[in-house]
Specification:
With 211 residues, the protein is mainly alpha-helical. Helices cover 63% and strands 0% of the residues. The protein has nine helices and no strands. α2 packs parallel to α8.
């Protein structure tokens, strides 16, 4: 955070997922689990997303044209994503205002994947050392007595709500996370989100039931 001058390095995709769950709870008047508890579970999903992104890149993802977000299509998607929670449109408008800044930066960058492609070999070696796999992460959380599934949270989150939060986490704000990278790679369609959630569930299952 000191290097970047802001908090994005400490608030990635896992926090965005938790924020969406909290927004949903606030909109419906429901209780929510603690932010940190939700982040812990969502971190398994984030780890699975990193694995999915790295696999996509290994299969030539950086050699294809980026899937740049279209402003009109994005506005429609955000409106649809939040319509049920807030029919007034205020929640969608707030998210769109923040996300639009990211869309503008990506559009102005030409091909935002070019710098990553040029530095990928070196970057991937570093990430191999830094990133933790979803199974190892789930095992650590389980050993600490923490939940490893959204349904295990003190205030359980259903499958549909969890899928909604994961699928739309990148649309909430201007910060760039691994879900944004997956979107640029064309690897954040419904089937990609389903694959990531399935990988997170497999990791949770490998950690075993809470003692």
């Amino acid at each position: 955070m000191g290097v970047t001058g802001g908090t994005p390095p400490a608030s990635g995709t896992e926090h965005a997922v938790s924020h969406l769950l909290e927004m949903a709870a606030t909109a419906t008047g429901a209780a929510a689990s603690l932010h940190g508890e939700q982040v812990a579970v969502a971190s398994i999903v984030a780890a699975a997303t990193w694995a999915h992104v790295r696999d996509t890149i290994a299969r030539g993802g950086l050699d294809r044209q980026p899937r740049l977000p279209d402003a009109d299509a994005t506005a429609a998607r955000i409106t649809t994503a939040f319509a049920t929670l807030d029919p007034s449109g205020a929640m969608a408008a707030e998210c769109l205002a923040d996300y639009a800044a990211k869309v503008k930066l990506l559009a102005a960058s030409g091909n935002p994947l070019t710098p990553l492609r040029d530095a990928w070999e070196e970057s991937d070696v570093v990430m191999e050392r830094l990133l933790i796999g979803p199974s190892e992460l789930a095992a650590g959380l389980r050993a600490a007595g923490l939940p490893v599934r959204f349904s295990d949270l003190p205030t359980p989150v259903g499958d549909d709500q969890a899928r909604w939060a994961v699928a739309n986490c990148a649309l909430q704000r201007r910060r760039f996370g691994v879900a944004d990278l997956a979107m640029l790679l064309g690897a954040w369609e419904d089937e990609d989100v389903a694959a990531v959630l399935a990988a997170a569930e497999a990791a949770a299952a490998s950690a075993g039931d809470r003692a």
